Structure formats: C-alpha cells, structure tokens
Amino acid sequence: MQLNLRPRRRPVPAIPIVSLIDIMVILLIFFIATTTFREKKVQMKINLPQSQTMGGTEAAEEARKTITVTPNKELFLDGSPVNVDKLAAELKSLRAANPKAKLELQADTETPLGMLVKIWDALRASGFSINDVPARIQRPGQN
C-alpha cells in the first residue's frame, strides 16, 4: 500500500469573465433605456430684486389705480363709474395716457366669478397682464 502524502490538487474553477461582462453591458443598456430622465420642475417663477445702489429708488413709485367692484355689482375705475362692457376701452385710454400705470382690483366678497372674468378679459384686451394686477378683497364695513 502506498501513501500519497501530497494533497490532491483540485482544479480551479474557471469563471468566464467575458460572458459576465457581456451580461453587465446588456443590463446597463437596459437600465439606461428604461430610466426616465426628468427635468427639474420649477414650482414658482419669481423675479429677484436687483439693485444698482442699495438704498434709493430712481423715482417715487406711482400709486396704483383701482378697479373697484361694489356689493351692488357696480364697477369703478379709479373712483369713476364705468360699465363693464366699456372697461376695455377705458383701460386702453388709461394705458395710452400713462403707459406705466399700475392697477389693482378691489372686489367685494359677493362679487360673482362671471364679473371677475369679464374684468380679466378687459384687462387682457387692453394690454395689461392679469398677473400684474393684484386683487384686494374688500370685506363688509371696510372702506
């Protein structure tokens, strides 16, 4: 009987690296193709203030002209009564007389939405941006 004192050599398993690389490339292509790339959505657009000199303004800011809607659904442009159908023409003449005129809307809490839509349509027709006309809600008993 013969004793073999040398340990048997086990064959080293061969791992096929080339086929693993192929599988990794296929997975990478799959993930790239199925991934959705989303653009960053801006929730709110704001214009940050800019100042050439920190302290003063170039000219005193003009007071805003008001479009007022009373509880009786009467319409006034800067204190003068105006018909809602003629509001666009009045606003155009105001804009022609003063191109830098600023407006604000003062409406009663009971003002119907239909009247507000007519006012906004008149603002657009006369060249004013609705976003530049802040709305003030007038409460009963407030002047």
From TrEMBL:
Keyword Thylakoid appears in the UniProt entry: no
Superkingdom in the source lineage: Bacteria
UniProt entry tagged with the keyword NAD: no
Keywords: Cell membrane, Membrane, Protein transport, Transmembrane, Transmembrane helix, Transport
Name the UniProt record assigns to this protein: Biopolymer transporter ExbD
One annotated Gene Ontology cellular component of this protein: plasma membrane
Membrane topology, record value: Single-pass membrane protein; Single-pass type II membrane protein
GO terms of molecular function: transmembrane transporter activity
Lineage: Bacteria, Pseudomonadati, Verrucomicrobiota, Verrucomicrobiia, Verrucomicrobiales
Pfam families from the UniProt entry: ExbD (PF02472)
Compartments where located: Cell membrane
Coiled coil spans: none
InterPro entries per the UniProt record, alphabetical: ExbD
